[in-house]
Design a protein that fits this description.
Structural class: alpha+beta
Mean pLDDT: 90
Radius of gyration: 16 Å
Organism: Arthrobacter parietis
Order of helices and strands: EHEEHHHHEH
Number of domains: 1
Distance between the termini: 32 Å
Strand order of the largest sheet: 1-4-2-3
Number of strands: 4
Oligomer: single chain
Protein name: GIY-YIG domain-containing protein
Length: about 150
């Protein structure tokens, strides 16, 4: 018998964010996001089926939303981190000055690219199970001390 409830969880391999957003499971589950270079887990979230995500729901649907610039959860947190870097903000201002008019979703997309993230996920039986597992992962002490998603 394993010593910790998370010892039995089977996670996918870590994939760069863009690849994960195209190939993750479309089933309910929990996903972990880490910085590629440091390996520090910075975000843990869960996803379940939604009426609007009938074909591409679950973890795949959630990551696809973020890839599209969704301004909540991971997208919101990545943007909050990016705007603290004067060089990143300066690049966005230079785009504006050159006549490139962009929506906020573009800034979120750029923030996620800037963060240089990798994703790993596991499937859950349903959204409620995924929500419980997400809470367990966040409380486990096996993630970064500075999770972006702590509430």
């Amino acid at each position: 018998m394993n010593e910790h409830p998370l010892d039995d969880v089977v996670w996918s391999e870590w994939l760069v964010f863009e690849e994960a957003a195209r190939s993750a499971t479309n089933k309910p589950g929990v996903y972990r996001v880490r910085h590629k270079d440091s390996g520090a887990v910075v975000y843990v979230g869960h996803a379940g089926p939604r009426a609007s995500e009938s074909r591409n729901g679950g973890v795949l649907g959630r990551l696809a939303k973020y890839r599209g610039g969704h301004m909540s959860g991971l997208g919101y947190q990545a943007l909050n981190k990016a705007v603290l870097d004067p060089e990143w903000v300066g690049a966005r201002l230079n785009e504006l000055r050159s006549g490139e008019r962009r929506l906020a979703t573009y800034w979120v997309q750029q923030a996620i690219i800037y963060a240089d993230l990798e994703v790993s996920w596991t499937e859950s039986a349903n959204k409620d199970a995924a929500k419980r597992l997400e809470a367990l992962v966040k409380r486990s002490g096996r993630t970064s001390e500075t999770l972006w998603s702590i509430r």
